[in-house]
Amino acid sequence: MRWVMRAKASLIALSVATWWVLVNLPWLQVGQEEFTGGQLIPVLNLLPAIALTALFISMYGKLRKTLLISAASVLAIGLYLSVSVDLSVSAVVVAELERLSGVLNPDSHQAGVTISDSWGKYAAIAVNGVAMLTALFGLRSNQQRAEREEGESANDDNRSLWDEQN
Predict the structure, then answer these.
(1) Residues 6+ apart with CB under 8 A from 90
(2) What distances in angstroms separate CA 132 from CA 39, 75, 114, one per listed residue?
(3) pTM, to two decimals
(4) Which of the four pLDDT bands, split at 50, 70 and 90, describes residue 101?
(5) Closest Cα to residue 58, out of 10, 127, 17?
(6) Does domain 7-139 have CATH number 3.30.810?
(7) What are the structural domain ranges in the chain?
(8) Rounded to whole angstroms, how far apart are CA atoms 54 and 40?
């Protein structure tokens, strides 16, 4: 088995790692309290690890396309969750609003408390999109080029060996 780190694979790994960092930065501010994306949507702490694991296993060459598609699928799930989930109704936000307002009814919890988004959420969504698109479209051309170069170098070596024997 041979492990190959290509430039676009390192770009994917770097973007997934950056996404993982951005998931753990503040996404929402409730009053004076800030909540990270990992607190608001706990599965977002697991998805980057799964995507990186699939990416690193795919570098060994076995089931490369399948693993890259699964990594891109995990990134797509993270992107969907980041965009579609209403963070203001998550359990930690409701608990904080109940603590601040003293009302244990999630429908009447506003009581002058402001909820505002942070830049971390939008940066995480953008970086996740870049990683997903790179995983889907970027690696196929590099893989085909590397296989073609390996095939050419293998043919050259065999011809010179054949010529030396004659």
Answers:
(1) 40, 41
(2) 23, 6, 33
(3) 0.72
(4) confident
(5) 10
(6) no
(7) 7-139
(8) 25
